## 1
Amino acid sequence: MASPEAAASRPDSTRTGPGRVLIAVYAIFALSASARAGVQIATKFGHAPVAYLLSAFAAVVYILATVTLAIGSPAARRIAVLSCSVEFVGVLAVGTWSVADPATFPDATVWSGYGSGYGFVPLVLPVLGLLWLRRWYRRPGTRHGLRSSSSAQLSAEPKPDLAQPVDPERGRVDRD
């Protein structure tokens, strides 16, 4: 098994370049959302249960995104795309809900007001995450983030001439 340092230096790892910053920001949000939700749920859950449960859900999404971006394998990248997508939809839905019905959110959540309490980073972060992950789906020689050594071999094999007649016993027959 390759060491984490070797995996981070591979060109197919999400932990290189800007990915390191993205993972660090996700880790900070995972920690802050977890701590905030934990304290709110433990001390004053009855005050704003919807807001506190949404903060806990946001914390789980941030943890999942952090871990899957850090792992960087093709399967982890697919889960990271899903978690960043859920995060983006969550920020838009909770943001809209918190603006339309502020009584439901007497205390702010990470995603309420579209993340205004966090400088709108929760609104921008999933977009950056999805753009970063998109890079792995657009790389030459990849299909959905997976390199296929057999695809190069398949394209190098000659294609059969389908217009040429076939003898069931001898295979393709030359017309000449």
## 2
Amino acid sequence: MVFLKLGTIAFGGPAAHIAMMEDEFVRKRHWITEADFLDRLGAANLIPGPSSTELAIFIGHSKRGWAGLIVAGSCFIVPAAVLVSLIAAAYVRFGSLPKMAGILYAISPR
């Protein structure tokens, strides 16, 4: 459930996600030690792709094995994917309307 919460409310990019994960998993829940967290973060930084997503997957795997990997990764990724899909659908549907031009200007693909 905590991965779904982080995937839903964690805005600000990988640096913000990682800070929130450290606070949640190391300080509040004591799921992993600071040293383990930093080891996983170092490994995630070596792999191409978003470090925060990889870190969430690593932590899920360390807590519950392969099932934890799948659940943590999905719960962390799906909220952002749904949000981006909704914004894309709104852009396609309403992007050509003059009233929406100002609202959608910030997310314009141009």
